[in-house]
Amino acid sequence: MPKGSNVPVPTAGLRVELGWGSGPGVPDADASALLLVSGKVRSDDDFVFFNQPTHASGAVRREGKKDAGGQVTDTLVVDLARVEPAIETVVLVASTDGGAFGQVPGLYVRVLDAQQGTEVARFDSEGATVETAFVLGEFYRRQGAWKFRAVGQGYSSGLEGLATDFGITVDEPQQAAPPASTTPSPVLSTPPPPAPVAPPVTAAPPVTPSAAPPAQPAAPVRLTKVTLTKEAPSVSLTKQGGTSGAMRVNLNWQVRKQFSGWRSKLGQAVAMHADLDLDLCALYELSDGSKGVVQALGNAFGALHQPPFIHLDGDDRTGASASGENMSINLDHQQYFRRILIFVTIYEGARSFADLDATVTLQPLHGAPIDFSLGECTVPSTVCALALITNTGSDLVVQREARFLVPERGVSPQRTVDYAYGWGMNWTPGRK
To answer: Which domains are seen in the chain, by residue range?
Structure first.
């Protein structure tokens, strides 16, 4: 589609892919959406982005990011039938993190019919330079039907500037309060005289109904997120304000490439998505000294509202699911945690993590999301320690591990990670 053109879209479930090429020196990017009335959001709740991935109506949901062979997609699921009648426009946005779109090759937005998978519309955005945010397209109502318009409007002020233009209140670092007056106040050399004392009241004043407390303004939107790296591997959940509610842990993966030669058998095993089964797991140690594991193997799915306060949502047996593997940790009970080690094992379908691209995201209910990639595996590993969460008593710290381990002959992946981190548990064979 050329810029400014429009096309009718079905009033049904749609998948919106914002895509671009990855590579050395290419900044990360994110998809987001704004639901507008007369060109503005009604409140900050009408902003769907990485810190607020689902609209309250369920009409727009951020599904997540994937990198397949150097092509990154960040997907939004849009159900136009569920968009509230007051909403006139759904704006589709891409924003960069750590660079400008002039460094991002092949930026596009693609609209797909979610049921049939057919392409409804596509717009390729070209000629970007210093822009750090783009309105790539929008859905809008016209005579009772929905259309998609290719927009391609760039902002050099980033997601913050774009969101502010649409009426979002963005959280900013606190500034020192300015002086109340530019004229200096005189300095008193003697204390002021005491205020006169009011005479005693002999009759009780009439009782008046107490006024309702003023409504508290909604907290401004936080546009920050945290990416852990080898150079900066840890973050404090306490300082991020993310120590309550259920924290969602997501593992998503893609096959990096096909390959040949001595690794061809491994490549065939990895490439067969239907046979590749990765399991997200967690070793835990509670404050009373009790230890255990949460995993699909042996149906040890845990529990969210009773010990261990960790629950594995399900078992993605194929890897084809866009949501990947998910686990929830109830941070309302953080006082019971001593340490939690999140790890992943290959249950079947591959002999190693080689040539898999995997991303881990920890999304607290409050505070910024924390994500990191595992990097390349260069050893015959079937188990990888992902992240270690430690309660120091005054702080809850997330440490990126991204540590590929190689089990010794006859030793299970679970026992291997136990030995590496000194958990000291007894293991028996299990099935799922």
So the answer is: 6-165 (2.60.60.30), 226-421 (2.60.60.30)
